[in-house]
Design a protein that fits this description.
- Chain B: It comes from Saonia flava.
- The complex is a heterodimer of chains A (about 260) and B (about 260).
- With about 260 residues, chain A is mostly helical.
- Chain A contains 8 helices and no strands.
- The mean pLDDT of chain A is about 90.
- Chain B has a domain of about 60 residues.
- The N and C termini of chain B lie far apart (about 55 Å).
- The N terminus of chain B is likely disordered.
- Classes of the chains: A mainly alpha (about 260), B alpha/beta (about 260).
- At the A-B interface, helix 3 and helix 4 of A face helix 3 and helix 4 of B.
- The structure holds adenosine-5'-triphosphate (ATP) and magnesium ion (MG).
- The site of magnesium ion (MG) has 5 residues of chain B, from helix 2.
């Protein structure tokens, strides 16, 4: 079944509308007791645990590669001593949050989409509802909160490991001590770099959890539906992440000018 | 308060003549439900009295699951009147609905065990929110054990659902349904997907539970053997309405081709 461009655009906006409604429901339910603290902790642990290794490895390689690639150019300009500043700022402000978020979109959003999707298909969500537990609260609210809280943490860990990777290159190739390297990085960074980046990470986490839950919760019947839910969750989440990133950079730029 | 008020309003606007009596547990009148152009239910009526075993039979896709989901408020009917234990379902607030649901057991078609939880956690799950019904229970283990012993699976308490066979899953699901000691149990195809021997075991369990706790049961099935053994009264759901009603023997004798189609071997 192939849809015309008009239909596709229409569906996209319908989807955005549904997603906003879903987000609205989240904000309504998140403040209402009873709170599912135990399940929230379990989800936080689960999500952090599931993506930590991946985020660390990717972070390390990004730091390594970024430094190796830019060394020749910086040497040409005689500016290799600016390496920590450049790498530090680009990782903390942009690369760290975006790459971590994209990895988590692949890992967490698809996981949530598939998990909730199969719970929907096998009537587990209905079973929860008839046993007196609000499934939206128990499943959706806890997961969105967990991703919102865990993503900034993962970003910080990813950043640190990326900087370590970069420092390693400088240490081996340029005889810069780790201490000197990190001193320079911290000199270069300002709160104006850290605060927008961290705030952005919270929004990234929220987006990932929201899209994963939305796709899973409204999963179509049948096992094929679960695959579709997991798949579209990743695509939709990644797309939205760039949009959120764009808005975040735009907004923080306005603040920067002030 | 508010709910009662609405219920009385309904009663005073022409529902009196057909109002259910004291011993009616479930009462459905003129239930309609469609999905787009797919008219699934178009005027279904049903009455389940206390202590009765009522079987609703219908082809696959005839709307049996839809009907039972409307009953517990999982789906919203387009129109019609549904009353469960004296309360009109569509007018209840979330809290009152949850309290009512504690008295209704629901066995799902595919067992619907939570597959991230052990058997014990599965059984404890309904207890989380229905503490008001049971008082403040500290230790749930005796309740879980009792429910599991009822279905003969006490040894499986620490297994995960993925480690159980289909028949065991169905039995655990039955135990989970029983743990709140419901007054009515709704069975959505309790024997589907099981071999005849396991199906017989499940039917045996259903009967023993019925005797032990004196529950009323609404059983949805397309398994004629199951219907013969367990039903006191049967309703055939055809074309979205209660097409025929009666005991198994009465329906078996019917000359109507649509009814005969159910019993043909
Ligand atoms: N959520 C839904 N959205 C759209 N259509 C639905 C939905 N649920 C059920 N239907 C449709 O309603 C009809 C009846 O479905 P239902 O699940 O009640 O059948 P059933 O009688 O329980 O069949 P079975 O014996 O196979 O379980 C089907 O045609 C189905 O496609
Ligand atoms: Mg069904």
């Amino acid at each position: 079944m192939s849809l015309s461009l008009v239909d596709k655009t229409k569906n996209f906006f319908i989807e955005i509308g549904d997603l906003s409604y879903f987000a609205g429901r989240f904000f309504k339910e998140v403040l209402k007791p009873p709170f599912e603290f135990k399940e929230l902790l379990r989800q936080c642990y689960h999500m952090g645990n599931r993506s930590l290794v991946l985020v660390s490895v990717t972070g390390f390689i990004i730091g390594l590669v970024l430094t190796l690639q830019s060394r020749p150019t910086l040497i040409e300009f005689g500016a290799v001593s600016w390496m920590p500043n450049m790498v530090g700022i680009s990782i903390v402000r942009e690369l760290g949050p975006v790459i971590t978020a994209l990895i988590c979109a692949g890992r967490i959003a698809s996981g949530i989409g598939a998990e909730l999707g199969s719970m929907r298909v096998t009537e587990q969500i209905d079973a929860m509802e008839v046993s007196g537990t609000n499934p939206f609260k128990y499943l959706v609210v806890t997961r969105i909160l967990a991703t919102t809280l865990m993503l900034p943490l993962l970003v910080i860990i990813g950043d640190a490991i990326a900087l370590y990777g970069s420092a390693l290159v400088e240490n081996l190739k340029g005889d810069v001590s780790f201490q000197l390297y990190f001193n320079k990085v911290f000199d270069a960074l300002e709160y104006g770099d850290l605060i927008p980046a961290t705030t952005k990470s919270f929004f990234f986490g929220f987006t990932i959890g929201l899209v994963g839950c939305y796709k899973g919760y409204y999963c179509k019947k049948g096992t094929a539906g679960v695959g579709v839910a997991a798949n579209t969750a990743v695509v939709f989440a990644s797309m939205l992440l760039f949009f959120v990133d764009f808005v975040a950079v735009f907004v923080s730029d306005i603040f920067y000018e002030l | 308060m508010n709910d009662n008020h609405i219920l009385q309003m309904k009663q005073s606007t022409g529902f009196q003549d057909s109002m259910p009596q004291e011993n009616v547990v479930i009462y459905i009148k003129d239930l309609h439900k469609s999905f787009g152009d797919n008219h699934v239910l178009s005027g279904f009526n049903m009455k389940l009295t206390r202590g009765e075993n009522l079987v609703v039979m219908g082809k696959s896709g005839s709307g049996k699951s839809v009907m039972i989901k409307c009953l517990v408020g999982l789906m919203e009917a387009d129109s019609g009147y549904i009353e469960v234990m004296g309360k009109e379902v569509s007018t209840l607030s979330q809290e009152t609905l949850d309290i009512l649901r504690a008295d209704i057991g629901f066995l799902f078609q595919g067992s619907a065990l939570y597959d991230s939880m052990t058997v014990r956690e599965n059984l404890e799950f309904p207890l989380r929110r229905h503490k008001n019904k049971l008082g403040n229970i500290v230790d749930t283990t005796p309740m879980v054990m009792e429910a599991l012993e009822n279905v003969g699976l006490a040894h499986a308490i620490d297994l995960m659902p993925s480690e159980l066979s289909g028949g065991m899953k169905r039995r655990v699901a039955l135990a989970r349904t029983l743990i709140l000691k419901p007054k009515v149990i709704l069975y959505d195809e309790p024997t589907s997907g099981l071999d005849p021997i396991t199906a017989k075991e499940i039917i045996g369990l259903m009967r023993s539970i019925q005797k032990k706790y004196n529950t009323s049961s609404l059983i949805i099935t397309h398994d004629v053997d199951c219907a013969r053994v367990i039903s006191e009264r049967m309703i055939l759901l055809v074309d979205g309405i209660n097409y025929a009603e009666g005991t198994y023997e009465e329906l078996l004798k019917s000359q109507d081709p649509k009814v005969e189609a159910f019993f043909k071997k």
